[in-house]
Each structure stands twice: as structure tokens, then as C-alpha cells.
Design a protein that fits this description.
Methylamine Dehydrogenase, Chain H, mainly beta, 35 strands, single chain
């Protein structure tokens, strides 16, 4: 069961930085992809430079690993079934669980039956699969419950493979299903039993495919009310997280009602401001979260046409955001901007390539980590003044999952392997 390849290499000292052993959901402990303190290696190699360990995975999945209480969890097919695996941070497999037959990805390079990241509170791990299965198990691998949303609420009609990941609030797990055809809804399940706590319809009329969304919701406390905020179907909405009641909604994301404006990159939160990439990577918008009813007119702070991002989610750094242009002629552009006003502080450029970014970048200390679909991982020095030194490393794997950083360890998930770099 355990298939590990170890490599010798220099070990960096991280004792001057506090240990950060949590990455409990796909964008990290604060949901913004930013770790304030830490050191990333600027260069590494497939042959072993800076590679702490490398694990062969049982099947191809595109979900980002999570880490909770020192244990790493990821979803992957296991002998044709939906599966969850757990490892310690030394690369030792602790357990694996398999469930019903997986629903394979559509065959394109960015899809799989295990695209959604798991989520954990340290005691319970919850995973969501393209098959519709939601599965919960304990941190030691014991099955707790499973529920199939498609059997319960209707079939998946998304054009592409599932992307949204579950989120936790207190003793509930919340999942967003947003699609142009079929049922669209938010559902909250009891973390211990899987029983439905509430379900809220989330249906907006859109043009063809524009109602399909692969984004992950946020949990925010706005004006003293905990809310689940979701982005898709040309709208951002806020629901009471305890009841599912729709509190507010904002449109303005597709004023001409265009088709094929599905949403992939998630919005990001900067205090009570949401920065929302949309329009297939051609627009960026910011709005103030909260209020009552339709807040489109009064809550939108700015909207601009610019080369932003279609698939990769931005990074939140303090009151600012870092946007990686993931495709098109300007792919590799880094834009650093103020969330409140949309003012561009600076722009930089990663080395030119015809390849696309699907992995959402992270910022650790003063270093950006930007994996690319062709197996190249770009590490770039970041400062308030601009982009600095850039190094490229090749690991020989396609990277769709996003990077993770804990305890001085950079975790990368490729097509076939899970890597730990130091």
C-alpha cells in the first residue's frame, strides 16, 4: 500500500518561523492562499534536488490536498471507486477508504472524478465527488456517513467536471450546486450524521452554460450574521448560514446576458469586500458584501475590463489582491492591486509560455509559487515594489491541483505523484 520514493537533499532551517500545521480547506487557513511567514525553495528537480519525499498515487485526481492536525488528506480514485487517502507529513500513508463506483472525468486534461478538495475540522474529514457522493470519515479513517446529492436532489448537468469544494461552519458542511439546467441549490448537512440541516434553492435565469459554476463558497460574518457567500449564475449571493435564507444578491456580472460565461475561478474576500473574476478572464469586479435584497446598485465598488483570470483563484495579501492571468496572450502576467478601489499597484510578467495555468498560486513569505499545466513550477520573488527574481523547475507532471504549504513543506500534487519539497 505504501509506495514512497525518498531523496536526499539539503534541509532548510525553519526554526525562525512559527510552525503552521493547518491547511484545512483548498485555499489555506484564511482562504486567501497567503502564508505570511515561511521560506520556499526557489529551485528543485525531478531527480531529487529539494525533494523530501514523493508518493505514487492510486489514480488521477485534480483536487488540492488539505492538511489538518498534522495529517494530509486527498481524494483520488482507488481501483475505480471514489476514495480518500490520509498521510502524515513524512509521507507515510496512514489509511485509505473507498466508496461507490467513481464517475470518471470527461477526459480533458483538467478534469477527473475527484476535482473537489476535502475539508476537515481535525476530527472529521468530508469529501465530495463528481458521482454526487458526499462522504465523511473520522481522522483515523473510520467511515461515518455517506450521501449522494444526485440521488437525493437531481442529476449533475454541468458541462465540465465538478469543481466546487465543501466548506464547514460549526457542525455543518455546506455544498453549492450551481448549474444552468437541473437543480441549483445550497445544502447544509450535519457533520456527524449527514442529515440535511437546510436546503436553499439558488436558481437564476441565464444564457446557455452561464449558470454553470465551479466556484467554492465563503463563510463570512457580515454585520454580525454568519453567512455563506456564493458566486455563480451571474450573481453573488449571501445566505444565512444557519437557515439558508437568502439575505442579499448582487448581479452586474453579465450585463449583456452572454452565453458560455460559466465561472471557474472563485471570488476572494478582503474583509467585507469580495473581488470577483468573471467574463472568462476578461473582467474583474469588487463589491461590498452584505445588505438586504438586491444590492447590485449600491454595493458594487468597481468593475473593469482587464486581463484577469478564468480558472485560477487570486491571492489575498492584506487589503490587496494578486491576480495571475492564466491564459491568452498575456498569460503569466501578475497584477497587484487594491481591493477597495481596483487601483493597480504594479504589474509583472512570468517567463513567456504557450501553456496555461490551472493551479491557483500561493504566496509564502516573499515568494510566489505558480505551477503550470506542463509540469513547470515558477517561483518568483514578490515585494510591494514589484516582481523580482524568477526561477523555473520541471517536475515532469501536469499540475492542476493548487500548492499547499505547512511546516516549511511545499506540497504539490501532479497527475501521478504527490511531492513534498523543502
Amino acid at each position: 500500500m505504501k509506495r514512497r520514493l525518498f531523496f536526499s537533499g539539503a534541509v532548510w532551517c525553519f526554526l525562525c518561523f512559527p510552525l503552521q500545521a493547518q491547511w484545512p480547506s483548498w485555499r489555506g487557513p484564511d482562504g486567501g492562499g497567503w502564508v505570511k511567514e515561511g521560506i520556499l525553495p526557489m529551485e528543485f528537480s525531478e531527480e531529487g534536488k529539494r525533494v523530501n519525499w514523493k508518493i505514487a498515487l492510486p489514480g488521477r485526481g485534480c483536487s488540492t490536498p488539505i492538511i489538518s492536525e498534522g495529517q494530509l488528506y486527498l481524494t483520488a480514485p482507488i481501483e475505480g471507486k471514489d476514495g480518500i487517502l490520509a498521510f502524515d507529513l513524512e509521507g507515510n500513508e496512514r489509511w485509505r477508504q473507498s466508496y461507490g463506483e467513481q464517475t470518471p472525468g470527461r477526459g480533458q486534461k483538467v478534469g477527473s472524478g475527484a476535482n473537489s478538495s476535502a475539508v476537515s475540522d481535525g476530527k472529521t474529514v468530508v469529501a465530495y465527488f463528481k458521482s454526487g457522493l458526499v462522504a465523511a470519515c473520522s481522522s483515523d479513517g473510520k467511515k461515518k456517513w455517506e450521501k449522494n446529492l444526485q440521488d437525493e436532489y437531481g442529476k449533475d448537468t454541468l458541462w465540465w467536471d465538478q469543481g466546487t469544494s465543501p466548506v464547514l461552519f460549526e457542525q455543518t458542511v455546506i455544498i453549492a450546486v450551481m448549474q444552468t439546467e437541473g437543480n441549483s441549490y445550497l445544502v447544509a448537512l450535519d457533520l456527524e450524521s449527514g442529515e440535511e440541516r437546510w436546503k436553499s434553492e439558488r436558481k437564476f435565469e441565464t444564457a446557455k452554460e452561464s449558470g454553470d459554476s465551479y466556484t467554492t463558497p465563503h463563510i463570512l460574518t457580515i454585520e454580525g450574521v454568519p453567512q455563506v457567500v456564493s458566486f455563480g449564475a451571474d450573481h453573488v449571493t449571501g445566505h444565512d448560514v444557519r437557515t439558508g435564507e437568502l439575505l442579499w444578491s448582487a448581479a452586474g456580472l453579465n450585463p449583456e446576458g452572454k452565453g458560455m460565461w460559466r465561472t471557474i475561478a472563485s471570488s476572494v474576500e478582503v474583509g467585507d469586500i469580495l473581488v470577483v473574476p468573471h467574463g472568462r478572464g476578461e473582467y474583474l469586479m469588487a463589491l461590498k458584501a452584505g445588505g438586504k435584497g438586491d444590492v447590485t446598485e449600491k454595493n458594487i465598488l468597481w468593475r473593469k475590463k482587464m486581463k484577469s483570470t478564468d480558472s485560477v483563484t487570486p491571492i489575498v495579501k492584506g487589503e490587496n489582491v494578486i491576480v495571475l492571468t492564466d491564459r491568452g496572450k498575456e498569460r503569466g502576467k501578475i497584477t497587484y492591486m487594491k481591493a477597495q478601489t481596483g487601483e493597480v499597484l504594479w504589474e509583472g510578467k512570468l517567463p513567456r509560455s504557450a501553456k496555461t495555468f490551472y493551479s491557483s498560486p500561493i504566496l509564502v513569505g516573499d515568494t510566489l509559487c505558480c505551477p503550470r499545466e506542463d509540469g513547470v513550477v515558477l517561483m518568483a520573488k514578490f515585494s510591494e515594489e514589484g516582481l523580482g527574481e524568477v526561477k523555473e523547475s520541471q517536475l515532469g507532471q501536469s499540475f492542476i491541483a493548487s500548492p499547499v504549504f505547512v511546516n516549511g513543506k511545499l506540497i504539490l500534487r501532479g497527475n501521478d505523484f504527490l511531492w513534498c519539497l523543502q
